[in-house]
Design a protein that fits this description.
Number of domains: 1
Low-confidence stretches: 1-9, 28-35
Distance between the termini: 36 Å
Helix content: under 10%
Oligomer: single chain
CATH architecture: 6 Propeller
Bound molecules: MU-OXO-diiron, calcium ion
Radius of gyration: 22 Å
Largest sheet: 6 strands, mixed
Structural class: mainly beta
């Protein structure tokens, strides 16, 4: 179905006067230079061609393949089950990716971090959940151990040779972080009796710190060890999880739902309690001039909230204050037990406020949002972009992208203005925005996440959009302000974790959960990436081509 959306929407905005230049590590390409107007474009003939450059918009497709627009190509870098060393394999359902070069002067050799969000037991542990009401009673600890190994994250050295990114197998820095890895809590008080917990899971999106470490975020943690619920008398009960891991290992739910930092070289991990506990989609950091940090992070659940942490000490993700957004009045409200009587009344201390951040946020009157997902800071204007993927309970089926402008462009401001940058829906050609990335020229790349059970169904409002896709909104040139589909995912998959290599020439992208609706492994709904096993496998791909190169140079057209 073709629909009319070739009209200009709103521009992302040109560079503002007096706005802070965003530090280089935050241009999601992780580049060593701030996006520059004329980078690489000195020849007038080329500039003329760039003026006429138009992206080809892919038509929506339900084909079981990774389709790319003209001028782009891809190759798989690593897929589920691939050996990264003699001891370890790449985990399941890859999501967030982040690349850090080993040597700043060589953008073609570095460490790739990849999140492994959750597992499909049908593929991982030979267990079909659909057959049982109570999965925990029907599988062994060996099956659960396989599941636990397949979530968390992977650090793998990758190198580009002759245009092809390849895993450096057995590199000493290659390692897995799993649901059984020991992880320290960056907090003074123990949580549920310990300051070192077991594992990380539900790793959805993430970020990078100014000191070049990886951030991975625990999102739908309650699916693994359940959740502690409180009734009106503050009495706690356990709500069981979907996977039933708590029947095999007694790890408390309070050990999950945190922002986790990973040292790329040692693999040492820590959970940052000060950033609160909820379904963290991502965590986007900004370093202030005095080296204090600001961290934005959202809670991807219907009618939950957007948070911001401001540190009181340079480089600290422990000392500081967590705030939650009142987007209606443009105020950051502090989740500070000491200074908020309403929190003092309900919770026994700051640790409890952070563990039960959702309840604390609601007590303070934070604004309910439609499932906050990824957050990126616009490298040109310093505005903060936040995807609100949908909220079906409230009749928002297609989601939107919110723009936050901090007062005077100060990231540690306690007031701001929120507005809708663009809404999903047929008119704009996309639905359910999830991940965001800005490239070197400040073009905005967006992935969609319509759920596998709703896509391509006549009885759902997602039919016109067909498979999940990758879109770009160019900032300059002929296509400025248009939403253009540049990639279409295989069946049941979503495209996640867009991350540009330091030279801006490769877009790393996760293809997550192809064939997720498979009921019978012998008859899968997808067989992408079409390897010899003939089953669907999530994989990270490298996308390259002249389209990316031209997009990076578009800023030369800035009026
Ligand atoms: Fe795992 Fe919010 O997407
Ligand atoms: Ca996501
Ligand atoms: Ca992102
Ligand atoms: Ca999502």
């Amino acid at each position: 179905m073709e629909y009319n959306r070739r009209k200009f929407i709103s521009f992302l905005g040109k560079a503002g006067i007096g706005l802070a230049i965003v530090p280089p590590f935050l241009t999601s390409c992780g580049n060593t230079t701030t996006p520059s107007k004329n980078k690489g474009v000195t020849d007038a003939g080329y500039l003329e061609k760039l003026k006429n450059f138009e992206l080809k918009d892919l038509l929506a497709s339900d084909k079981d393949d990774l389709l790319l627009t003209e001028g782009l190509n891809y190759h798989p870098v690593v897929k589920w089950g691939d050996a990264i060393s003699d001891n370890d394999t790449f985990g399941f359902n890859n999501d967030f990716t982040c690349f850090i070069p080993l040597d700043e002067n060589n953008p073609k050799d570095g460490l790739l971090w990849v999140n492994h969000e959750y597992i499909n037991p049908l593929f991982v542990s030979d267990f079909n959940y659909r057959d049982y009401d109570n999965p925990a009673e029907h599988r062994t600890i060996d099956q659960v151990d396989k599941e636990m190994y397949n979530v968390g994250g992977t650090i793998v050295r990758v190198r580009e040779e002759n245009g092809q990114w390849k895993v450096v197998k057995n590199d000493p820095l290659n390692r897995r972080i799993t649901a059984q890895t020991d992880i320290k809590l960056n907090w003074d008080s123990p949580i549920k009796g310990t300051s070192t917990v077991k594992g990380t899971l539900a790793n959805c999106s993430g970020g990078i710190t100014p000191w070049k470490t990886f951030i991975t975020c625990e999102e739908n943690y309650d699916g693994f060890f359940g959740e502690t619920k409180y009734d009106e008398n503050n009495k706690a009960t356990h709500r069981p999880s979907r996977y039933g891991w708590e029947k095999f290992y007694e790890y408390p739910p309070e050990h999950y739902g945190w922002v986790v930092e990973i040292d790329p070289r040692t693999g040492a991990a820590q959970k940052h309690i000060a950033l609160g506990r909820f379904a963290h989609e991502c965590c986007t950091l900004y370093e202030l001039e005095d080296k204090r940090v600001v961290a934005y992070t959202g809670d991807d659940k219907n009618s939950e909230h957007l948070y911001k942490f401001i540190s009181s000490k340079p480089g600290s993700l422990k000392e500081g204050t967590l705030y939650v957004a009142d987007t209606e009045n443009g105020k950051w409200l502090s989740l500070d037990w000491e200074n908020q009587p309403v929190l003092k009344e309900k919770f026994k201390d700051q640790t409890e406020v952070l563990i039960r951040a959702r309840e604390a946020a609601k007590l303070l009157g934070a604004t309910e949002l439609n499932r906050p997902e990824d957050i990126e800071i616009d490298p040109v204007t310093g505005h903060i972009f936040l995807t609100l993927t949908n909220n079906k309970d409230k009749g928002d089926f297609h989601g939107s992208i919110m723009k936050i402008e901090e007062t005077n462009g100060a990231f540690d401001a306690l007031t701001f203005k929120a507005s809708t940058y663009i809404a999903g829906g047929e008119e704009n050609g996309f639905s359910c925005p999830d991940n965001l990335a800005f490239d070197m020229a400040g073009n905005l790349w967006i992935t969609s996440d319509m759920s596998g059970s709703s896509m391509n169904r006549k009885d759902k409002p997602y039919m016109p959009f067909k498979n999940n896709s990758l879109f770009v909104i160019p900032r300059y040139g002929k296509d400025a302000g248009k939403v253009i589909r540049v990639a279409s995912a295989p069946k049941d998959a979503e495209l996640t974790g867009p991350w540009f290599s330091p030279d801006g020439k490769t877009l790393f992208l996760s293809v997550q959960h192809p064939g997720e609706q498979t009921k019978d492994i012998k008859n899968p709904t997808s067989t992408w990436p079409f390897d010899k096993d003939n089953i669907p496998k999530s994989a990270v791909v490298a996308i390259q081509g002249e389209v990316i190169e031209k997009m990076n140079k578009l800023r030369a057209l800035e009026a």
